[in-house]
Amino acid sequence: MSYIVTLVHNGIKVPLRGTVWAFDMSRAQLFPTREAAQAALNKARPFMKAATFKRAQIEEAAPAV
Questions:
Q1: How far apart are CA 17 and CA 14, in angstroms?
Q2: Fewer C-beta within 10 Å: the chain N or C terminus?
Q3: How far apart are CA 3 and CA 37, in angstroms?
Q4: How far from the centroid of its chain's Cα atoms is residue 64's Cα?
Q5: Is the pLDDT at 64 greater than 70, yes or no?
């Protein structure tokens, strides 16, 4: 199981990729654990507004078919 960090912006779900938000879910960075996803979100925190950080969510990635 892997995890991604997402944010809903203007009704569109966008994933975290490195320290920036990508606008295509296929570009999402996958993390092996929830803790690794949280660490990546914490690393990206200085580059985003506080409200953006609070709205970010860690969720399970859909399995690849």
A1: 10
A2: C
A3: 7
A4: 17
A5: no
